[in-house]
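Below is how a single chain appears once it has passed through the pipeline. First comes the sequence as given, then the structure the pipeline wrote out for it. We keep one example in the README because the format questions we get most often are answered faster by looking than by reading.
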Amino acid sequence: MAIMKLRAAAAAAVILLVSALPALAEIDPAAPLPMARDIKVGKLANGFTYYIKQNAKPEKRLELRLVVKAGSMLEDDDQRGLAHVTEHMAFNGSNHFKRHELVSYLQSIGVKFGADLNAYTGFDETVYILPLPLGKKEDLDKGFQVLEDWAHGLVLNDADIESERAIVLEELRLRGGTRNTKDLYAKRFNNERYGDRLPSGTVESLHAFAPEAVKRFYRDWYRPDLMAVIVVGDIDPAEAEQLVNKHFGKMAGPAAPRPRIYAEIPPYAANDALVQRYNEAPSNTVTITYPAEPHRPDNTMAGYRAQLIERLYTSMLSLRLAELAQSANPPFIQGSSARSTIAPGYRMFQSNAVLGKGGAQPAVTALIQENERARRHGFTAAELERARKSLMSAAEVRYRERDTINSASVAVPLIRSFLLGEALPGPAYEYEFLKELLPAVTLEEVNGAAAKALPSGQPKLAVYGGSDRGEVRAPSRDALLAAAAAAEATPLPPLVEKVYGASLMDTLPKPGSIVKESVNQALGITELSLSNGVRVVLKPTSFKTQQVLMGGFRPGGQSLYDAADLHSARLASSIVAGMGLMDYAPLELGKVLAGKSVQAAVNISELYENVNASAGTAEVETMLQLVHLRFTRPRKDENLFASYIAKQRELATARAATSDAVFGDKITGAMYNDHPLLPRLMQPADYDKLKLDRVAEIYRERFSSAKDFTFVLVGSFEVDKLKPLLATYLGSLPVADIPTAFRDRGVRPATGLIKTDIYRGSEKSSRINLRFTSEAPYSEDEAMRVRALAEVLNIKLVDVLRDEKGLLYTGSFTGKLSKQPYGQVAFSANLPCASGSVPKVIAATMDLLKKMQEQGPDPADLAKVKTNWILSYRRALQDNGFWLNGLQGAYANGSDPAILLRDEQRIAAITPESLREVAKRYIKFDNYVQAVLHPETK
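Resulting structure:
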């Protein structure tokens, strides 16, 4: 009865909405877009703004944001980088929380520092992020107290600011130098101030600033007329509004406020180019930037229609670039175009490409020519129809999922509304409006808008960013300018559109049958055995009304192949996927599936063959068809294979030049004595050795048969309606006799103390990696204890190495106990730091580990981890992804899947003493790898 009432109420709401929406012919273009009825927006007498939305996903949790319209562009000359320092100081002492008390308190109620609790500083804004578990009643008021303290209650003690100086310097060092970024922003925004006011500041400014400059920034810009609080989550809006009034209503601004001025972004006067050489770049890129346009959101019906047309032509243009990237001799590896807001009051059109073996010139030519082709000839009717379908499909998903969207996602458009003035009509209104509006948008309108957005002859900025070593060298500035000028002057024919079929399968396979069925009521799962031996596990849920997730696995994988086939097996699935299905190349397949929210992919991992797929509820049959075709109708294409090799070879060249990639590869080699079966960093020459026939043969060897496959489906479906589809598409899969057990190839870590130093890169920073490994029998409870030990060590990294000693900005421990191919425990620490601090960081980390063995974790730290895990677990129980991964893991490990219902009890059973024993068992100071990455200059 309750469900029927809810459905009736929802239907009535839609009827009211549709009846309230005037016929398209009656819509006044100047009429303002409505505010979504379930969003409360208000402003207090002091100018403080608030947004409130009740949202039940996840339950018993709030997402709070404090948004400040102040960032680095407002810094005075002696304040460069101090908007960001002010953000850091919000976690270092306030009226109600002494230094470090805030983070400790929030951790005690289940909030994880970094992953949950965080903040960021931009050019024009600072945003504080506080997810708040709603456990005890006092925690709700205390959460708002945190926001209030951030807004106008920071202590900003001189000594605390001095302590934080080392941490922000370490953060800047970790992110690399700022010279390239400074030049890029100054050019792109055509305003030197953007280059001089990078949010991170400079090494010089962070060394030189006075604490008083931080206090002045806080006094000047943290004021009610420049602030908003965002409240989204499981709360009565009236209660939220009372808390906003209580905590922010008495906040006073300065008597003589400084004017809040936004920087201008003037148009380019002439074509320009910038070449940025950076040998640590993971890929080489070019960007073509068109002049910035003054732009304020037009929150009228006409403005919404114009925005819709813009989305249509930019999506069609990006698809054209994607199709070019899949051509036989592509001008780039990847390309895209977009028009977006870049700063308050301005938007910009940009085209980007990741470069292939041809370098910058063909990419610049292709990007500009495709923009020119769209300007001169427009798009085709078929392209527009596909774009309409995709846009409408996305709007429908947002509408049908509107009550199951995570609160953190709901908060994002509210932040943009405050910062940029964007409208908030809501997914229900947008869906109904689009149903009326989209069919009436004409091809002529879209083509006219595209031509207006890309006027002929306007000045452009061409930017190259990447390496200047390897086969492809960085271009000169003159070469970029010449390529851009020549591309715009080239005669271009209109695009010729090919017509594609409307369905994947004209003839359906002969169905198999369901030979056995069992139901686990406690877990809510149904297990089916099909006539071909395939096993299917089904868990219907109501967590997302438009989501079905599918996974599949079978033992085997790369472990069945020897060293000669290592790279072919490793890449077979991605190479074959890159050639399409049946007679369709990948882009052609995308056109056939336009407007459908569906995907299906397969993979050959180290120990398994895997299937990963997803669909909206209406596209489940299409998803199963795609899975069936991945097994039965892979496509072979010599041109696309050659294109794939060329692209990956170029990416490998760039990747091999990066310090992090080389460092990781060296660690792996040191750990395993350069074993020939290790999955090492692929070199460009490795791609030259790949042969299409052998790659395709390996794919067929592993996917021409579904023998011993287990498939898991989780999401919004009815089991009885799904059964005939499963019998048709999975029950009909061939099951030839092939090996279906992975092979333990005997790859084991070296023993003893291994120390290695790698000298790469020019930045004045180092990276330390410590790895402790040993063989160990597997159990789920022991695996959980291993992970828990890593988590309490992460708390200590922040407390001791960051806050107490100022040795690093960030670092992490990870811990994992694996069952396959043999029982192995692995602890590792990743510790980026200043090159001069390496001995101190290693010594401090080893001291933490020794104390963990001697004393075990602080019970308060363990309680923080357990509280966070329990709250995360309770949320995960309402998530399809948790159930898909958990069920696959249980079946693959041969575990009882009922363990997924016992995590809370297992977490509660972890004790400080049990973690002390874990540390003693697995952290051996005579058996570990210590690798250090140093700058190239010793």
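The radius of gyration is 29 Å.

See the next section for the split statistics.
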